[in-house]
Sequence to fold (124 residues):
Amino acid sequence: MVSCGETHDTIALALEVSDETLRLHYRRELDVGAAKRRRELLDLLWQSARKGNVSAQKKLEETTRLAAASAKFDQPPKGESQPQRPATLGKKELAQRAAETAGHGTDWGDDLQSAIVPGTDSVQ
Fold:
């Protein structure tokens, strides 16, 4: 039903379950169902084209050409790489960064800054 454009609410109503139940028990089907249906349709199209159906051959050629163009469009231009996502910091790294900026903009912030040697864990 997802492959036909139905919403999760409509699918839940058709199956007589709540939206939460649908998402809980049918998560995989909701996520990959449309892709599986498309694969099945392309397989049927391919079989018809192999049997000599000219309309199926034209549609398959068009679909293949569009998929190739879409893939080419999604690639970065030559010489450019994909933008790198910033590394996500863990709890310890976040705490360390928060400790390094603790007191900035306060009356006692200068007291903290003069006691820490930058780039080390030692105190003056």
Residues 27-50 form the longest helix (24 residues). The chain has two domains: 2-74, 91-124. Residues 91-124 form one domain.
